[in-house]
């Protein structure tokens, strides 16, 4: 998939915990896969900050901490899917593998168990970002 050299993708990372946000940024790095553009990040520590960022547009992926307090990423993810037209893909960080049913309830597009596995997170994010880029790129005939 070709992209412009100056193109970037924006990833919103939500958690009340600065360390969790840093783990996500470190795991994804500047580019989670060679075939994707570089990433820009929007770090959000509160539910209102996420909503404000999404209202502005331009977000290509949301990574939400399911264990965030006071507003968990699972409930927030469901709200985003219900209320945001053209909601970007949502990847949730769940507390344990048994919580995948909660991720499904939240309408998340993908879920990764904590602690964050950098390889699993990068692979899931890359898959969601490729699909996002493919949707907005016109087909060339």
Number of strands: 5
Structure class = alpha/beta
SSE sequence, one letter per element:
EHEHEHEHEH
Share of helix, binned: 40-55%
What does this structure look like?
The structure is a single chain. By secondary structure, this protein is α/β, with parallel strands linked by helices. Helix 1 (18-28) crosses helix 5. The chain is built from 5 helices and 5 strands. The chain has helices spanning 18-28, 47-56, 73-83, 100-105, 118-136, and strands at 8-14, 38-44, 61-65, 90-94, 110-113. A 5-stranded parallel sheet has the order 2-1-3-4-5, with helices on both faces. The longest helix has 19 residues, at 118-136. The relative contact order is 0.20. The radius of gyration is 14 Å and the shape is globular. The two termini are 14 Å apart. This is Response regulatory domain-containing protein. InterPro entries: CheY-like_superfamily, Sig_transdc_resp-reg_receiver. Residues 10-129 form the Response regulatory domain.
Q: Top keywords for this entry?
A:
phosphoprotein, Sig_transdc_resp-reg_receiver, 141 residues, alpha/beta, Response regulatory domain-containing protein, 40% helix, 5 helices, single chain, CheY-like_superfamily
How is this fold's topology laid out?
Elements: E1 8-14, H1 18-28, E2 38-44, H2 47-56, E3 61-65, H3 73-83, E4 90-94, H4 100-105, E5 110-113, H5 118-136
Parallel strand pairs: 1-2, 1-3, 3-4, 4-5
Helix pairs in contact: 1-5
């Amino acid at each position: 998939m070709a992209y412009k050299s100056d193109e970037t993708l924006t990833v919103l990372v939500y958690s009340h915990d600065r360390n969790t946000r840093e783990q996500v940024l470190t795991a994804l790095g500047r580019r989670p896969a060679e075939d994707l553009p570089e990433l820009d990040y929007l770090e959000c520590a509160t539910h209102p900050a996420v909503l404000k960022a999404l209202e502005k547009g331009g977000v290509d992926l949301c990574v939400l901490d399911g264990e965030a307090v006071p507003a968990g990423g699972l409930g927030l993810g469901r709200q985003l899917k219900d209320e945001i037209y053209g909601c970007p893909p949502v990847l949730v960080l769940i507390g344990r593998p048994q919580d995948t049913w909660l991720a499904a309830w939240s309408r998340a597009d993908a879920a990764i168990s904590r602690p964050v596995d950098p390889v699993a997170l990068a692979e899931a994010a890359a898959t969601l970002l490729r699909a996002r880029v493919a949707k907005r790129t016109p087909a060339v005939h």
